[in-house]
Design goal:
The chain has helices at about 5-20, 20-30, 85-95, 105-120, 130-145, 200-205, 230-240, 260-265, 290-300, 320-335, 335-360, 385-390, 395-405, 425-445, and strands at about 55, 60-65, 70, 125-130, 150-155, 165-170, 175, 190-195, 210-215, 245-250, 270-275, 285-290, 365-370, 370-375, 410, 415-420. It is α/β, with parallel strands linked by helices and about 450 residues long. The protein has a seven-stranded mixed sheet, with helices on both faces. Strands 1-2-3-15 form a four-stranded mixed sheet. A three-stranded antiparallel sheet has the order 13-14-16, covered by helices on one side. About 50% of the residues are buried. The chain binds pyridoxal-5'-phosphate.
């Protein structure tokens, strides 16, 4: 057994001893829940089984065993506004006694559309319940107006359960990502793939002129953080325009860059912005915003059924409750001032991690997008999705996750991401720095 394996086994043992009620709840759930969890990804638990939630408030969660944690996972961004922010809770309570969903628009929707336009730029908005659906419907609209079959994504991206996006390249061939479940069609038919931060690769792929849209995060966030190199996003915009391809910025995670996401913070001009997760404080809500020019083209499509069974829409999308929660969250919680505080905390977090990495002489790196921080077992930080994927080490990740959890700190179970919410304090950040440093010391002793 390596030192790492010994330490991981010790941490798992501690985790098991400390969480008898979560362990029992997991066993009980196995009887009727697929995989023993409400959603199968909840099985990604470094300690051996998932912690069961009792309560969560602000930057804290408490599990069924009564243990409280500083939460930097924040529902993988779904709770970036903090858990149960009072203004959102109040709006939910009010709206839920006045009609949750009806076949009618509410004034909140108009307010939210205007606010998203002010923040992100695109002037015309439509609503979904998830970021996945925002991406799916944006893709359909892009195919409709361009009459092109393919979507281009960057290698090792993630955009939700969007069929087209689970693709990699193997030489000239487009292949499915390992583990892709029951794909409907061969990805060669639907997708082109380029490497992030590689303008030549992108130019070559777009030159086929069969790509309806590039679907991208302005910085990759789902294979660690991969930041765009200077000029890359300008090149993406120039090339997409040159080749008649639309550009979709998925801001679901890069929303952490500021009140208007990376689109506003980095002065970007996509044709479509998609977003979900955090905007309604944890209540299901997603949205996509469209440039005026593209909105005109969409509405002029004679053979596109946008009011009934055309393939874009959902019964509960744009419901009164989701929009009330979205309005309250944007108006009172994820405000400009909140982003300033969150970014300051994240900068402190980043510094703490960097200091620990330096003190231990490790070839690791840390990257940040506003309120979001991620550490990686590679230095300098990987500049492509493939390089970042190659830096992955499951055992080491599990050790860090379990070590932190056993000492009251949670980071996102997917890779090593930490997010700040408006309630995160300097003390919370320093607690992580302290425990992270201790985890490294034990690894090296
Ligand atoms: C960039 C990005 N887009 C879209 C999604 C999908 O979000 P949801 O699962 O809430 O639909 C995710 C989820 O992690 C994401 O990271």
């Amino acid at each position: 057994m390596t030192r790492l394996q010994t330490l991981l086994a010790r941490e798992r043992e501690t985790f098991k001893t400390d969480h008898p009620r979560s362990a029992a709840a997991y066993d009980e759930a196995k009887r009727h829940l697929l995989g023993g969890v409400p959603m199968t990804w909840m099985n990604l638990a470094a300690g051996g089984f998932p912690l069961s939630l009792d309560t969560a408030r602000g930057a804290r969660v408490t599990d069924l065993d009564g243990r409280t944690y500083v939460d930097f996972a924040l529902g993988d961004t779904g709770a970036m506004a903090g858990h149960s922010p009072p203004a959102t809770v109040e709006a939910i309570a009010r709206r839920s006694t006045q009609g949750i969903t009806a076949m009618m628009p509410t004034e909140d929707a108009t307010w939210v559309g205007a606010e998203l336009a002010r923040r992100f730029g695109p002037p015309q908005w439509s609503f979904t319940l998830t970021a996945t659906d925002a991406n799916r419907w944006a893709i359909r609209l892009a195919r409709q107006v361009t009459q092109r079959p393919k979507i281009l994504v960057f290698a090792w991206c993630y955009h939700g359960s969007v069929d087209e996006a689970f693709a990699l390249r193997d030489g000239d061939r487009v292949v499915a990502r390992p583990g892709n479940v029951g794909r409907p069609v061969d990805l060669e038919q639907t997708t082109r793939v380029a490497e992030f931060n590689d303008p030549d690769d992108l130019a070559e792929q777009l030159a086929h002129r069969d790509v309806a849209a590039v679907l991208m995060e302005p910085a990759l966030t789902n294979i660690g953080i991969v930041l765009p190199e200077p000029g890359f996003l300008d090149t993406v915009r120039r090339l997409t325009r040159e080749h008649g391809t639309l550009l979709i910025n998925d801001e679901t995670h890069t929303f952490s860059a500021g009140p208007g996401g990376a689109t506003k913070a980095w002065d970007l001009e996509p044709d479509i912005v998609t977003i979900g997760k955090a905007i309604a404080g944890g209540v299901p809500s997603g949205a996509y915003g469209i440039s005026r020019e593209l909105a005109g083209r969409i509405m002029a499509e004679q053979d596109a059924d946008l009011v009934d069974t055309g393939g874009v829409g959902g019964t509960l999308a744009g419901n009164a409750l989701s929009l009330a929660a979205t309005r309250a969250t944007l108006e009172h919680v994820l405000t400009d001032a909140a982003f300033e505080r969150m970014t300051a905390r994240a900068t402190r977090f980043e510094q703490g991690v960097q200091d620990a990495i330096d003190a231990h002489g490790l070839d690791w790196s840390v990257s940040r997008i506003g309120a979001r921080v991620e550490y990686r077992f590679a230095a300098p930080p990987p500049r492509t999705g493939s390089a970042s994927a190659a830096a992955h080490d499951r055992e080491l990740e599990d050790y860090l996750h379990a070590y932190l959890a056993n000492r009251g700190v949670l980071i996102t179970p997917f890779h090593l991401m930490a997010l700040m919410c408006p309630d995160t304090t300097d003390e919370d950040v320093d607690r992580h720095t302290e425990v992270f440093g201790a985890a490294l010391s034990e690894l090296q002793s």
